[in-house]
Amino acid sequence: MKYKNPVISGFHPDPSICKVGENFFLVTSSFEYFPGIPIFQSKNLVNWEQIGHVLTREAQLPLKREHSFIPSQGIFAPTIRYHKGRFYVITTNITIRKTFYVWAEHPEGPWSDPIFIDGFRGYDPSLFFDDNDKVYITGASFPGAGPEGIFQAELDIDSGKMISESQFVWEGTGGSSPEGPHLYKINDWYYLLVAEGGTEYGHMVTIARSRKPYGPFESNPHNPILSNRSTKLPIQATGHADLIQASDGTWWAVFLGFRPVKSTKVHHLGRETNLAAVEWSEEGWPVIGENGRAKVEHDAKLLLVNEPTPWLERDDFNCESLATVWNFYRNPLESSWSLTEQQGFLTLYGQSCTLNDLESPTFVGRRQQHFNCEVSTLMEFSPTEEGEEAGLTVFMNENYHYDIAKMIQKGQTIILFRCRVGSLWKVVKEILYDEPSVVLKIKATDTSFTFSYATPTGEEKVIGSGETSLLSTQIAGGFTGLYFGLYATGNGKCSTAPAHFDYFQYVPGQE
C-alpha cells in the first residue's frame, strides 16, 4: 500500500513527534498565530487528526510585537516528548526571546503555564530523557551568542533550572544554520539529529553519534541522510526531522518540506509535514526515504493506512467555540469576536488597526491547504461610519495580502478588491453595492486567485485577481504559509457595526 506526502498539508512546519501506547502525537510551529502549536493524533503516522492546540491562553503565548524587523515572530520549532505520565512541549517564543516548556497529563490539555529556562541562549530547543533520569536540553545557538552550532545542558525538569553549564557539542557538517537538534539513545549510542543548510532549497538532515550525551560526536560519513536539494522532485527543502519507532519495530521520520509551484519555483502554501521510512545501515547509521530522497508517494510498509477522513467543507459557526482549524493573528481582543451574539454566525467587530498593522487585527483565519480550491462566505454587514470595512482576505503577513471587502466610503457602500504587495498598495476596483448581505468568494489555482461577489441569490461577478507568486515566501519573507481570513476593521477607529458571517465554505479542487 502507498501513501502520499504531505501527510499534513498547508503551513505545518518543524514537525516533532512522540508515541504513547498505540498513538502518535505531533506538533508543529505556529509563529504569530493564536492559539499556538497545533497538536495532532494518529494511529498509523499517515492519517492525522488535529485534537487542539498546546498554547491556548495569552499568558502562555504573548504575541505583542516589540520589534518589526523579523517578518515572522512567535513560536519557533516546538519539540514534544512523553515521560512518566506527562507530555512535555518545549519551544522558543521569538517575540519575547524566551525558551520555555509546558506540560500536560493529556495531549488535548489543559497545558500548564510556561516554565521559562533562564540562561538558555538559543532556539529550536529539544528535550531528551535519559535512562538514568537525567534530562538534557539541546538547542541551536542564537546568532552572536557563541559559535554557530548545537549546544546542550542538563535540566531540572521540575523547576526548569539548568543544572550544568551549556556545552557546545557539534558544529554540524559545514552547512549553514545548524538547528532543529534532537538527541536520541538507540542501541547504546547517542544520536544527534540536526537540520542544516537553511530552511530553503539547500535544506538537509544530518546526524552524528557518540557513546556519551555530550560527545565527542562522530559525524556520519554519508551525511546528509535526507535532502532533496539539486533535484526536480515535487517536494523541496526537506529537513528539520524527528525520528520515531512504530510498534512493529520499523523506524520513521517526520520532516518539513514545501511544494513549489512548477512554473515559478516559489511556494505559498508554506512548509508542510511529510513522512518517510528510515532504514539502518550495518554500521548503525539511519537513512531517510529512498536513499536519502523524499518523494510524494512512498510505500507504507506495515502501516495500516486508512482512507482519509472526509474533508469538512463547510463551517456554519453553530458551536460555542471555533473549530481547531481556525486561528487569530496574534492575541485577539476578546470583544472583537463572538459566536453567541447572533446564533449560527461568527460576529466580528473591527478595531482601529488594520491588516497592515503590527497590532492584532480583527481576523479569524484558516490555512490554505490546497493549490486548487474555492472558499466563500456569506456576510451580513451594514456599515454606518466612514471607513468601516469587513471581508475576506488571502493573507501572508501585514505587508502581503489580497482583500475583497465591503465598506462605507463617502457615504456610499461599496465592494472593493485591494492588493497589498510590500510598499505597493492599490484598490484595484470598487463597485457600488447597497445590499445588506453579500457572498464573497475566492477561487485559487497554483498560480492565481480570482475574487468575486454576489447577492445571496444573484449572479456571481468577478472583481479582480492576483498572482500567488506575489504572496509567496520568496517575496513576502517569513516562515509561514497563506491563510484565508475573515476580517473587520474601522480603519483608524473602532467599528460600531458588526459583521456577521453565516458560514465559511472551503472546497478543495483536484491537485
Automatic annotation (TrEMBL):
Domain called Beta-xylosidase C-terminal Concanavalin A-like: residue spans: 314-506
Record's keyword annotation contains DNA damage: no
GO molecular function: hydrolase activity, hydrolyzing O-glycosyl compounds
Organism domain of life: Bacteria
Chain positions of site Important for catalytic activity, responsible for pKa modulation of the active site Glu and correct orientation of both the proton donor and substrate: D124
Catalytic site: D14 (proton acceptor), E179 (proton donor)
Any one of the GO BP annotations: carbohydrate metabolic process
Keyword Hydrolase: yes
Alphabetical list of SUPFAM superfamilies matching this protein: Arabinanase/levansucrase/invertase, Concanavalin A-like lectins/glucanases
Keywords for this protein: Glycosidase, Hydrolase
Entry similarity comment: Belongs to the glycosyl hydrolase 43 family.
Protein name: Glycoside hydrolase 43 family protein
Taxonomy of the source species: Bacteria, Bacillati, Bacillota, Bacilli, Bacillales
